[in-house]
Amino acid sequence: MTNRTIWVIDDDVIYKTIMKKIIKKAAIFDMPITFTNGKEALDALIKTVTNKEQVPEIILLDIEMPILDGWGFMVEIEKLKSKLEKFPKIYISSSSIAVEDKAKAKNNPDILGYMSKPISLEDLLLIASTE
Amino acid sequence: MKSKINWSSFITFFLNKPKITGFIVFVCLFAIFSYLVAQQYKIQKENNHIMMNRTLKEIDQNIEQKLKNCYTTTLTLALTINDEGIPEDFNAIGKRLLESNDVVSAVQLVPNGVIKYTYPLKGNEAATGLDILKSKKLKREALKSVLNKKMYFAGPFKLKQGGLGIVGRFPVYNKNHFWGFSAVIIKLEQLLKVSGVHNIDTTNFSFQMSKKNPETFKEEFYLPQKVKFTENNFVTSTVPDGDWKIYLIDLKANKATSTLFISQLLGFILALTFGFLVVLFLKKPAELQHLVEQQAAILIDSEIKFKTIFDQAAIGIANVDTSTGTFIEINNQFCKMLGYSQQEMKTKTFLQITHPDDLKKDLNNVNKLKTGVINEYSMEKRYFTKEGATVWVNLNVAPLLNQKNEQISVLAIVEDITLKKQTEKIIRERENHFKSLFEDSPLPLREENFSKVKLYLQELNLIEKPAEEVSSYLTKNPNITHQLHALIEVINANHACLDLYNVNSKDELIAAKKELFNPNSFSDFVKQLVIITQNQDNFSIDTIIKNAQQEYRNINLRWNVIRGYEKSLDRIIVSNEDITNRKRAEKIILNSQEKIESLMNTIDGIVWECRPDDFAFTFVSKKVEGILGYTAEEWLESPTFWTDHIYPEDKEATLEFCKIKTTNKEDHDFEYRMVAKDGRTVWLRDIVSIVSENNKITSLRGIMIDITKSKEVENDLKKSFDLVSEQNKRLLNFSYIVSHNLRSHTSNITSLTELIDTAESDEEREQMIGLLKTVANSLNETMTNLNEVVNIQTNIGLVVEKINLKTYIDNTLKLVSEQIKNKEASIQSNVNEEIEINYNPAYLESILYNIISNALRYSDKTRKPLISIEFTKENNQNIIAITDNGIGIDLDKNGSKIFGMYKTFSENPDSKGIGLFITKNQIEAMGGTITIESKPGAGTTFKIYIA
């Protein structure tokens, strides 16, 4: 198996199940790790840094989430940046069609792209091949 | 020579000081007198002494003689003693002895010291049988004669027979054997008498006799003492046979001293008299001397004064030798004036320093003076200074004569008048200047003489009378007024003045202005006369004249009395400014002003003008009454009228805006409200322009337009616009919500169908279908919620009823009673049964339920929930405030999302994120709002504003 890692951060249970299936089908990543909100993902990331484990290569991040939403997560990961040996490729995956959300994503240099749901297998392969 | 001087000065010294000299004379004479007196006294005293010694010697010799006689007597008596020691013929011999010796009063024979034989016995019986050697008193003196084997005179002592007596005892030896004494008794009185003591001058002298007491060794005096002994008022001698001391005392010794004193006093007086006479004698020349000195001092003083005057005088003075022209003497001021030193001046002649143009005249004068044609002269002339500059002086020359009246030199007094000359020049120039100014002035000017006018007014007794009185008198007596007019004398008139009257000469001018041609010019002249009677020295009036061509001209007539002629009015400067054109222009301006004003009043707005610093209005057009109800007069009366009548809410902002714009010099256009006289609020649009002159704002001008009606329309429009945009916003928001919530489901459906298509096994497909069913259910639920929201927003079937708030709260609490019980929550409420509100019952139920159930759901696990419900009023709005002590929420992070759809902020699985969204929509649908205040860990307050 390859050891490419991908994290999915979304509060939609069905979406997460779907993404697991798609990722499995793509067969280029390890089994994805999913989180219900930004807070859970951030805690996991801090743990990774502390244990000197591998940082995920790609993060698929939803915007609307309880506790800590996508924007909040971006603020927190920015603080961790110096401790990360390699900064993950972060993509927003949202069903929001609000213009301001897209603009906000575009203006953040740490976000590589904005993907509107649904995410297809092709989309996944495309971001996986992007260096 | 030198000593002579000293001598004469010495004498002068005494002559000048009569008092000292007199004193010295007095002292010398007194000393001489004293010496003479002392010498005289001394001589007198010595003579006296010699005489006294002689007298005393005589007495002494007499006494000694008598004592020797006594010795003979005793010896004789002793010879009477026979060998048996018995006297023979004692009485007869005694009798003879007594007869032969005048001092002896008795004789005695004293065998073995016992008185046995006495002659004469009579009177001396008492002594018979007395043992002398055994008598204490007599023993010592008796033994003395025995011891010396010599006769010794004892006493004097008191005799037993009476009186003072002396006993002379002669020791008798028989066959070398002491037999006894042969004695004589001498009465002291008798002894002194025979010794001549009584012959001495008792007025001047006194005799004394003394002996040392053999017992006490004290000197005892036997005669009465008349005066005391002093050091040298006596002479003395001793008588050895009796150990006596005899004295002759000068009774007048003290008197001699007093004589001495008198002589001395006389000497003193004499000396004093002489001294005084000397003083008197010397005083006269000293006074004369003093007078001479005084005169000399005065002379010196005045000489110094004149010297000082000469040297220090502020004018130049010189003594000049006219034959040579040299300066014999010259003072400082003269030298200073010309810049030379005195030495330099003395080497010059006046010819050398005099300006050549003035020299001839000067020399001419000098000659005249010499020859006696003139006695003195004075002239203005020029000197050259050392630097070569010219000094103008006023020269005064007078001759100096000797006693023979011959001219020896001249005294020249010069005064520097350069400055005066310069000033004169300037004045001359200035006069010319003024003359040309007067002549060429573009302003018509005349010089006139009003003195005759004034004199006539004085004659009429009008001077200083009340102005009204003068005016009415002159008006009533036009003849007099015309006469007065004719009395004005024209002295001079300039070109402009002649032009004004269109004449060529002064005479023509006088002819042209001869008469007061109409009532106006008459009354204007009366005014001038009134001014003259009030003693004012200037006048100004706009009047009319008629020129030679009979054309009328408007002039500004002005006159001023030339300084110095205020009393007489001899010289008056009259100016006649032609103001015809100006008057015409003024009229045009006035006309156009009227036009503008009428124009302004037709404008449908208030035209105004105000001061830029305090917004005090200087003008408002009449339209103000139509728009605001105030008259223009009311408005202008108070400087703060405008600011006072701005609608209170607009006042601050309006004034601030105007100030800023005015400061920035920007024209402005703004709207505000004012309160009209009848209390209405009037909306005004004010268009303001800044009027400035030389970059300084002089005033603000503008126009106020009544825009109340259009403002009302605008407000309505704004309200409906706000409503529309609010609804639009809500709609847009809703569309986002719809799209977002529906999209999450549809995207899931899309993905799932894809996965179903590509499923590799039936099992997998089954799983996907199962998921699809879940998504379908969620979608349905979302649709239901959205439908509810749409219903709320469209207000369809919204019924508003008057409902009792407490009933609804109680119902809600019943619905959540299970949770209250489980969480042991307590509820507080101030809402009583009387409170009723207009609301949709279903909404109120939903709102209360959502908020109260939230409060219970998000309670803090560390404490028992406490919920309070309060009904209050804030700015006339009813508020239901619900406060809990739950976990709270961080509003900084989540404030914007709190009322959003599907927004949840906790990990509570019951959180759906729909309750508050619906609540907010319901409240807004009822025309109210909802606010939240919260603090994490402290609690949350929701406030529901009921419209």
UniProtKB/TrEMBL annotation, chain A:
<protein>
    <submittedName>
        <fullName>Response regulator</fullName>
    </submittedName>
</protein>
<dbReference type="GO" id="GO:0000160">
    <property type="term" value="P:phosphorelay signal transduction system"/>
</dbReference>
<dbReference type="InterPro" id="IPR001789">
    <property type="entry name" value="Sig_transdc_resp-reg_receiver"/>
</dbReference>
<dbReference type="Pfam" id="PF00072">
    <property type="entry name" value="Response_reg"/>
</dbReference>
<dbReference type="InterPro" id="IPR011006">
    <property type="entry name" value="CheY-like_superfamily"/>
</dbReference>
<feature type="domain" description="Response regulatory">
    <location>
        <begin position="5"/>
        <end position="131"/>
    </location>
</feature>
<feature type="modified residue" description="4-aspartylphosphate">
    <location>
        <position position="62"/>
    </location>
</feature>
<keyword id="KW-0597">Phosphoprotein</keyword>
<dbReference type="InterPro" id="IPR050595">
    <property type="entry name" value="Bact_response_regulator"/>
</dbReference>
Automatic annotation (TrEMBL), chain B:
<dbReference type="GO" id="GO:0004673">
    <property type="term" value="F:protein histidine kinase activity"/>
</dbReference>
<keyword id="KW-1133">Transmembrane helix</keyword>
<dbReference type="Pfam" id="PF03924">
    <property type="entry name" value="CHASE"/>
</dbReference>
<dbReference type="InterPro" id="IPR052162">
    <property type="entry name" value="Sensor_kinase/Photoreceptor"/>
</dbReference>
<feature type="transmembrane region" description="Helical">
    <location>
        <begin position="20"/>
        <end position="38"/>
    </location>
</feature>
<dbReference type="Pfam" id="PF08447">
    <property type="entry name" value="PAS_3"/>
</dbReference>
<protein>
    <recommendedName>
        <fullName>histidine kinase</fullName>
        <ecNumber>2.7.13.3</ecNumber>
    </recommendedName>
</protein>
<keyword id="KW-0812">Transmembrane</keyword>
<dbReference type="InterPro" id="IPR006189">
    <property type="entry name" value="CHASE_dom"/>
</dbReference>
<dbReference type="InterPro" id="IPR000700">
    <property type="entry name" value="PAS-assoc_C"/>
</dbReference>
<dbReference type="InterPro" id="IPR036890">
    <property type="entry name" value="HATPase_C_sf"/>
</dbReference>
<dbReference type="InterPro" id="IPR035965">
    <property type="entry name" value="PAS-like_dom_sf"/>
</dbReference>
<dbReference type="InterPro" id="IPR005467">
    <property type="entry name" value="His_kinase_dom"/>
</dbReference>
<keyword id="KW-0808">Transferase</keyword>
<feature type="domain" description="Histidine kinase">
    <location>
        <begin position="737"/>
        <end position="947"/>
    </location>
</feature>
<dbReference type="GO" id="GO:0007165">
    <property type="term" value="P:signal transduction"/>
</dbReference>
<feature type="domain" description="PAS">
    <location>
        <begin position="592"/>
        <end position="667"/>
    </location>
</feature>
<dbReference type="InterPro" id="IPR042240">
    <property type="entry name" value="CHASE_sf"/>
</dbReference>
<feature type="domain" description="PAC">
    <location>
        <begin position="377"/>
        <end position="429"/>
    </location>
</feature>
<keyword id="KW-0418">Kinase</keyword>
<dbReference type="GO" id="GO:0016020">
    <property type="term" value="C:membrane"/>
</dbReference>
<dbReference type="InterPro" id="IPR001610">
    <property type="entry name" value="PAC"/>
</dbReference>
